[in-house]
Amino acid sequence: MTSCGKNRPSSCLVAGYVLSRKHVRDGRELQQRKMISLKSRGVSCLVQVASNTFFKNSLQNVYNDLRRNFSKVGFIGCGNMGNPMVQNLMKKGHKVSVFDVKKSCVADLQKAGATGCSSVSEVVADADVVLTMLPANKHVLDTYTMKGGILESVKKGAYLIDSSTVDPSVSQTLAPLAKEKGATYLDGPVSGGTIGAEAGTLTFMIGGEEEAMKKVEPLLLCMGSRVVYCGKHGMGLVAKIANNMLLGISMLGVSEAMNLGIKLGMDPKTLMGILNTSTGRCWSSEMYNPVPGLLPHVPSSNDYKGGFGVALIAKDLGIAQSVAIQSGVPIPMGAQAHQMYKIMELKDMGNKDLAVAYQYLKCDK
Fold it and tell me: Which segments constitute the 3-hydroxyisobutyrate dehydrogenase-like NAD-binding domain (predicted)?
C-alpha cells in the first residue's frame, strides 16, 4: 500500500486503485468528525485517530464503487487457471457466474459460491464484465461468434476480456465485432502460471484501448498484482507469446542442466541452490524446478499433474513460430523448443506439466 503524499493532492494509490478526491475527502471528513466527537466529550489532549482510518474508509469506498460498477461478472473457462481466478474474485466480494464445457469444473466453483451456468449465453446475458480463459484460437473464436455465443448475448456497455493465449489476430478480429455490439473488447493474457493464479499475483498484459483498461484495472487486481498496458489490440498477446517462448526454452535449459549435474553425481538440492544464486538463476529453476521433491506445491512434486501442460506450451510455441515466419523474424531456439515439446506430446506427455521435460531428457521413457 502506498500512502498519499502532499505532492499528490488529487489522488493516491491504495492497493493498486487510484482514489479520487471524493474518496480522499470522505476519509478526511471521517477523521475530523471523530476528533470533534472526542473534544466534545472533554478530552483535553490531542488524540490521534488511528492512522489507518483514512485508508480503511477509502478502501471500503473503492470496493463499494467497484461492486457497483461491475456487480455481475461472468467467467468462461474454469480449468487450472480459471478456477483460482474465479476464487479470488469471490474472495474480494464479487458475484461470479461461470461456465465450462466440463461440468465438474462448474460444480467445483458452485461449491465455493459461484453461480453455475449451463451455457455461454446464460453467463453473458446480464454480465457487466465477461472474462474468458480458453485453450486455443478455435475455442475463443467459437465461444465469441457461435450461435448463443458471447457476441450474440452481450449487453451494451459490457467489457469483454480474453485472457487466453492465442494468436494476436484473434484479438484484432474480435475487437471490432464487439464494438458493433456496443461492448468493449480487450486482450488480457496473464503470466504467473497456476501458482500466480492461486496466490492472486498474476500480471495482466493488456491490448486495446487504454481508457478501457483503466476501467477494468481494479477488477483485474482482484486476481493479480500488476496490470500492464501493452498497446493496441493484439499487443498483450504479443507480450504473452514472447514470454511463453522464453519459458519453454528456459524450462528445457534448466531440465538439461539439472539432469547433467545429477547424472554426474551432484546432489539435486545443492545443485538447485547453486543455480539459484548464480548466473543461471531463472523462474524455471527457482520457482518451478522440474526435479521431483525439490520444491513443494509444484507439478514436478505431484507427478507433473496440473500446471501448464506440454500440449499448451507446444501450442504457444507454434503460435510464436507462425507469427515469426509471417514477420520474417528468426527464432531458432524457439523453433527447436517447439519441436522438443511436440515430440513429448507424441510420447503421451501432452497432459503433463511442461516440467516433465526433465523426465523426457532422462530417457526414462
Answer: 234-360
The percentage of the chain sitting over the pLDDT mark of 70, rounded to a whole number, equals: 81
Q: Identify the active-site residue in 240, 263, 347, 365.
A: 240
Q: What is the DSSP letter of 68?
A: H
81-137 pLDDT per residue, tens: 999 999 999 999 999 999 999 999 999 999 999 999 999 999 999 999 999 999 999
CA distance 321 to 340: 14
Is residue 365 within 8 A of residue 280, CB to CB? The reply is no
| 92 annotated active-site | no
As beta bridge partners, residue 224 has 202
Rounded Cα–Cα distance for residues 36 and 34 (Å): 5
- Alpha-carbon dihedral of residues 202, 208, 212, 216, nearest 10 degrees? -20
Q: Which helix (H) or strand (E) holds 64?
A: helix 53-69
DSSP tag of 46: P
Q: Are 244 and 178 in contact (CB under 8 A)?
A: no
Query: How far, in Å, CA of 117 to CA of 123, rounded?
Result: 6
- Name the E strands within 220-351: 224-231
In whole angstroms, what is the distance from residue 268 CA to residue 132 CA? 39
Alpha-carbon span 119 to 99, nearest angstrom = 6
Lowest mean pLDDT among 16-20, 143-147, 216-220, 240-244: 16-20
